[in-house]
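Sequence in, structure out. First:
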Amino acid sequence: MDAEQLRECGHKMVDFISDYYKSIDTFPVLSQVQPGYLHKLLPDSAPTHPDSLEHLFDDIQAKILPGVTHWQSPNYFAYYPSNSSVAGFMGEMLSAGLNIVGFSWITSPAATELEMVVLDWLGKMLKLPEDFLSAGQGGGVIQGTASEAVLVVLLAARDKFLRKAGKNALEKLVVYASDQTHSALQKACQIGGIHPENCRLLRTDSSTNYALSPDVLNDAILSDIANGLIPFFLCATVGTTSSTAVDPLSALGKIAKTYGIWFHVDAAYAGSACICPEFRHHIDGVEEADSFNMNAHKWLLTNFDCSALWIKDRNALIQSLSTHPEFLKNKASETNLVVDYKDWQIPLGRRFRSLKLWMVLRLYGVENLQCYIRNHINLAKHFEELVAKDSRFEVVTPRIFSLVCFCLLPACKDEAFANKLNHDLLNAVNSTGKAFISHTVLSGKYILRFAVGAPLTEERHVNAAWTVLQEKASALLGTTL
């Protein structure tokens, strides 16, 4: 393909994507297809001869889009947002066009150095301690997901402790977190060889709004020490998956410091809100942490994947993850004057992901990004007020960011019936294709989650989703509005 063919095809693809966004709210938000649908529509082997781009677009329209759940739809309120933007898309396009594999500085110096610069920018937006910036012993790195971030810091912490206690101490290492912590921590423990029985997911309840209690943590640590175990890793969360609970970082950090435990803070979703001064207090205490993570690809208009991880001691990562095969040796790396991000992550290869974050920060600016976050929080507050006005519903946990946890109340007090009622309401709403919400379980109670965060969502979309919820609730309860 020459430059002119690229220009022609590229224009057609941009036109196709532009048309998609122009009509995105006409699609059912949640895909309505059945498992295996695509196998029936596509051939069982690749074509022998080239097809045309026009035929390919026809198939995307007729066969692929019906099987897509539209995360960028203004009617998407499930899980957490995964933001896209023009700036992020253009950065992704440029990254794909350059197609570098920037595992070390020498493979593309700009890829390494831009990543250092933009993560310093973002770290300063979040008012992170200087220890996390690249001028010191720490620095930032873009991982694919928060799951990768927690894995690499857990491995770094594990190896740091094993160097002191000996390789045979692995079976004694203990990890701590609340029972609201993302399941990625459990997977990291499995990969890292931490014994399943030594992964302490400490119970939370409504008395702390499902945040981890420092007293519960301290008691668990003391008990483990008394039993000859080695506490080594604590994961706190700012904005838990189920309900956006915020663990008390300052108190937990002091406990971690007392016992010499690695302290990691996962702010994958809610970290973006902390660029706003009025929400920054939710990460007060981050100065006690050894590592901090947030996902720019969730709520900061940066296309997936772009998970920002900061660490105070880069050598902890490097000692755990670096390899030095002959074919990767080069003068720049051997001078120790450059960063080789291959030593900060699991895979060797890496994309030029900093381009899209750089373009988002440049083309929107901090003030616009703050307004963007505030708008979603205000829309969630509006939805919360709508729920509170309808006596058939209940807001279950305090709204902190842009997630509202709520449920439909049955006439009777039977918990099993209430759970089924809300399960049925979820399915009824999602089957309409007019809105997509998700659920969780808190203290045995089936809860509906309404997460505002799609880039195109406006108040009218929130109101329309609420109308659908009310209509389906009325049908299930056998009442009228």
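Second:
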Amino acid sequence: MSDYRDLRISVIGAGMGGLATALAFAKKGFRHVTVYETASNLGFVGAGIQLAPNLARILDRWGCWETISAEATNIKSSSIREGSTDRELAHVLMPDIAEKYGYPHSTGHRASLAGGLYEACQRESERITFRFSTSLVSVDSWGAPGHGDTTLFTVKPRHGEPEQVETDVLLAADGIKSVARTALLRALDISAEVEDTGQAAYRIMLTRSEMEHDPEMLALLDADCALRWIGEKRHIVAYPISNKTIYNLSTCQPDVNFAIAPGATYTTRGSKEQMLKVYGDFCPLVQRMLNLVPEGEVCEWKLRSHGPLASWTIGSVALVGDACHPTLPHLAQGATMAIEDGATLAECVARVPGGGADRAAIARALKVYELLRKDRTTMMVDLAAFSGRALHLGEGKAKEERDRQFAEAKEKGKPVPDKWASPEVQDMLYSYDCVKEAGDKFEELFAGLEKNQAAATATTNGVHA
């Protein structure tokens, strides 16, 4: 019997999903994990991020939650407000999240989360190797019948010649623009183009020194509350991060700038004048905050997606995170889903019968990962889209009904149209333990795949199973 820890694990991309995948495998004892990243280094940028209990549970197992949580804000309530008037539609109390789920719902800086994961990877330097300035060019052989017996891929260093790499498991966490996804779909003769959502986002961070002159702003920064200001086709999410030294605002609005040039990059330098115009009918408090953004420092992100994929795997190759289930941000679970993917993959591959000597067994283990994750992530992507539609309603009966439900939600435990703040959705999200589920279900799912394969083989050979 081979030792699974000697399997060569190759990870494409060092974003949240890639870092988490590498760390998960190292923590399971895998000795040969290599991460390929296009960027020359991990100079982390970005804005705020929500750190839900189901994410904290994983990070704590890996020993990196304490550092990340030290500068996070423990969110104890959510306020949903009408953008034009600042009138509160619902105030959802969340004082007992940690008591219920073992961890609080926190908000932090993306750089803190990514940096914490990277530092944890660096502590596993005997097991994890990073190759920066190196991009995936192609997947050449998938380690599956009809797709090549070995798993081969080609990478190109920025200042070097392309090189082909042989591996035992290839895990592609290369994002919405995934080269691996394109290759996988082509190999399976499946069409699933990246789709425009018609939405874009501004991401803004205001410092305490910029806000402290305004009592209303300062009250927001010092509160343990996440806010949403909502309006027709637009909303703004806001909360404190970095030990309440920064107030993070993330917006969502119709995609105007990118729609003009649909083939352009996913980020563009935005216009402050245009941003103020988009939210020109929002309340004075919002206007004062947006006016603090320096001219020339407005950035806008295109929000992209694609439909559910027929398959996430071929042979010894699997997709991770945004490469297989990109989502709108309205449920605040995008990075968490990618990190859960990495944790689930490590659990599955570590349980491969025979320690990974049988390539067909590795392929089945990766398919178990897909079975464990696909329905759940599809549901979450759909919930995020549903929540966005509810937040963006214009005048009419649907909005009246939504606002009635918001008013009822002031009574603790009632469902909330904003699904991120809705107690039943929070319970479904926060109680989930992807590692436990993988441990509980792996053998049954693996055996089912093995039985199906045996039946298919028997049918092909003319034998009735």
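Remark: The CA atoms of residues 10 and 170 lie 5 Å apart.
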